[in-house]
Amino acid sequence: MGEAADSTRRPRTDAQRNRTHILDVAERYFSEHGISGSMDAIAKRAGVGAGTLYRHFPNRDALLAALLQARDEELDARRNAIQRDESTATEALARWLDALGEWVTAFDGLPEPLRAALSEEGSPLALTCQGFITTTEHFLGAAQREGGAQPWVRGRDLFLSALAAGWVSGAAMADGSSAQALRAMMRSGWAVPGCEETP
């Protein structure tokens, strides 16, 4: 009985250890090469067969979703901190968009699969994106009620603008201030005149 229990527990333990190891390797690999890096190269670097990698993560989106999970928790913590702060709703929205902008640039090239996930219901990234769009709508609605954001602005558009700024930061022509400048221009678009602050 004890041996049987151990034999069923061990494969699960090994599988979890493999999964964790693959995630650690993929984190380093995507940080070095961006998300366009080869899945097979990740498997090779992790010392596992491609079949093992794809059993855990059937596609790149599944691997990215797992890697972003820890960052999702960090972003949730920042959201909670912003909500507890006594800043204005308009400033809270700006701070949330800054946090979101950092999240979408976790890896070079990440904005594109996040954008694509918005139109692919089966993508494991879609639920994550939709959750952060809902959060953005919450912050936006409060800023609109306060009179600090234009009434026609939508949370989905602000989420897409964060993806756009993230894409710009990795563009060949971009420099260190490009993404910040684009975020400032976007804010001057959604903010009611008189509520803008110098970035």
UniProtKB/TrEMBL annotation:
Protein name: AcrR family transcriptional regulator
Organism: Longimicrobium terrae
PANTHER family xrefs: HTH-TYPE TRANSCRIPTIONAL REGULATOR BETI (PTHR30055:SF234), HTH-TYPE TRANSCRIPTIONAL REGULATOR RUTR (PTHR30055)
A GO MF label: transcription cis-regulatory region binding
DNA-binding residues (ranges): 38-57
Pfam families per UniProt: TetR_C_43, TetR_N
Keywords noted in UniProt: DNA-binding, Transcription, Transcription regulation
Superkingdom assignment: Bacteria
Chain ranges of the HTH tetR-type domain: 16-75
